[in-house]
């Protein structure tokens, strides 16, 4: 009887420690599933999507492992919920993850809050629901089995180092994350597969490290030649002249901006 009770306590300790970590990992899989629903489910057939999600889960679980309290896990999961839902809402409008430069412009959301709320979908509520379920299961096991928070930090460190090493070797053998991500963005079928394959953290790193090449003199000559070959704009005589202000908004421009001022 004593041996069985001890074995049950050891098993309960492992489950208690694994539940918040499994909840974080589930959020990455849920994000990938919703994201791929709008694009392609090809990332689910690639092992990188699971490996990067596993590494990100271990890194985000570090506060929970060090503090040994479920409050740290709840805070991490709540922040993940907000971040992932925000990126899904952004993708439904702009077909990309939130760029790194746009995080400083979050205050502008107050100007068009109704359009933001209309981007919400019922599946987005699965993120906070998964957090509630994770917390419920954690406290239920803790209260019923009267067990304490115990987790082998040695196993955590071994898993973290080994998974990071394998992922780093794979990325290095393929030319590095920047080159791989650049290839994905230029692909016709996988241009939006970056976040599911390399998580949102990889997307932010690519935005930070990617440097757009400057125009060469030959490219500038080609641009000027193309602009000079365009027919000149002349006003239509039948239209009455008026003093009107015409505002043209150019939004979501990519790297192909010419950085030139075109005047009539």
TrEMBL record:
<keyword id="KW-1133">Transmembrane helix</keyword>
<feature type="transmembrane region" description="Helical">
    <location>
        <begin position="125"/>
        <end position="143"/>
    </location>
</feature>
<keyword id="KW-0812">Transmembrane</keyword>
<dbReference type="GO" id="GO:0016740">
    <property type="term" value="F:transferase activity"/>
</dbReference>
<feature type="transmembrane region" description="Helical">
    <location>
        <begin position="12"/>
        <end position="35"/>
    </location>
</feature>
<keyword id="KW-0808">Transferase</keyword>
<feature type="transmembrane region" description="Helical">
    <location>
        <begin position="155"/>
        <end position="181"/>
    </location>
</feature>
<protein>
    <submittedName>
        <fullName>Phosphoglycerol transferase and related proteins, alkaline phosphatase superfamily</fullName>
    </submittedName>
</protein>
<keyword id="KW-0472">Membrane</keyword>
<feature type="transmembrane region" description="Helical">
    <location>
        <begin position="47"/>
        <end position="67"/>
    </location>
</feature>
């Amino acid at each position: 009887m004593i041996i069985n009770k001890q074995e049950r306590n050891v098993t309960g300790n492992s489950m208690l420690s694994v539940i918040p970590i499994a909840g974080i990992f589930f959020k990455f899989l849920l994000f990938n599933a919703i994201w791929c629903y709008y694009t392609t489910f090809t990332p689910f057939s690639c092992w990188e999507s699971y490996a990067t999600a596993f590494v990100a889960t271990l890194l985000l679980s570090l506060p929970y492992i060090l503090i040994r309290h479920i409050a740290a896990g709840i805070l991490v999961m709540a922040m993940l919920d907000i971040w992932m839902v925000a990126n899904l809402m952004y993708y439904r409008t702009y077909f990309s993850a939130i760029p790194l430069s746009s995080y400083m412009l979050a205050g502008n959301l107050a100007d068009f809050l109704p359009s933001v709320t209309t981007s919400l979908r019922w599946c987005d509520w699965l993120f906070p629901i998964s957090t509630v379920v994770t917390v419920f299961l954690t406290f239920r096991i803790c209260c019923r089995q009267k067990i304490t928070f115990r987790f082998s930090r040695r196993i955590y460190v071994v898993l973290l180092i080994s998974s990071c090493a394998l992922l780093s070797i794979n990325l290095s053998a393929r030319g590095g994350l920047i080159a791989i991500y650049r290839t994905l963005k230029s692909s016709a079928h996988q241009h939006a597969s970056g976040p599911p394959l390399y998580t949102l953290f990889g997307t932010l790193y690519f935005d930070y490290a990617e440097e757009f090449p400057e125009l060469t003199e030959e490219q500038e000559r080609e641009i000027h030649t193309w602009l000079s070959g365009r027919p000149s704009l002349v006003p239509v005589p039948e239209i009455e002249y008026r003093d009107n202000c015409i505002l043209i908004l150019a939004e979501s421009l990519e790297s192909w901006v010419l950085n030139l001022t075109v005047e009539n």
